[in-house]
Structures are given as C-alpha cells and as structure tokens.
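tool=predict chain=A
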Amino acid sequence: LFTHNLFCEAYNKANNTYCKRVRVICAEHYKGELENELQVCAYPKAWSAGKSLTFAEMFEHGADLLKDQGFCCAPRKDCVQHHRWIQALVGTIECERMNLLTRLDELLERRKTVSVGCSTRGDVISLLNFVVSFRSISKLDPFCIE
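tool=predict ok
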C-alpha cells in the first residue's frame, strides 16, 4: 500500500534476492542525492541540546529552530560531529511513514471487517419488518403441540 520508493529494490544476482532495506538508509545502494549538494553541514544546533525529541517535536518549530540557535557552519566534508545526519533524518522520516502506512493498512482491514459484518447483519428496517407469527406456523404444522 503506497510503499513505492520506500524500500531499496536493488537485485542481488549472487543470491537471487532483492534488497529490502529502507531506501535512504541502505548504505550499499543509496548515493545520497540530497546531502551531496550541500556545501556546509547545516545541522540544526537546537537538536544537539541533549534533550530527547519526539518525531513531531523535531519539526514543530521549523523556522524558529534555525533562527534561535542557528546551524553548524562547518564545511560538510570536514564536519565529523554530524556525519550523514541528513541520511539519518530522512531515514527517521521514512520509518515514520512506514509506521503510518502500516497503521492505515490495519485500519482499512478493520473497516472492511466491520462493513462485511454490517452488510451480513442487515439493517434496522429489515429487522423491524421481519415478523414471525407463531400462531400461523402452529396451525400449519400438524405435529405442533399447543
């Protein structure tokens, strides 16, 4: 379900298998298109404050994040403190996306189960109109004891 471009699909001829790692974290096949274009590291210094952040908190105040504390201005190739931070960040985003897609798939399956259950039970009008007269059945059945 909507997982295109989420997993690495590189084929390994030796094993006749496909690589199924998260694409941006796959060190063998991912070339890092985004970070190769950067001249400076640009790691937000607010993230290195030592405080643990949830996924939502990381992006909650996007513009303020850089305005308040700034970012790492070291040349990208020379910064060893924030090595491949963009790849880790995009990997975190992709994992969160995978979690959301899994949750969506579970909810769609549950919706399908509920709708099948509702369609087999019938609606209220059908239940109200379905009347069984026990007297008429007993008169037709000679073996019925009243």
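The mean pLDDT is 78. The beta strands are 11-12, 17-18.
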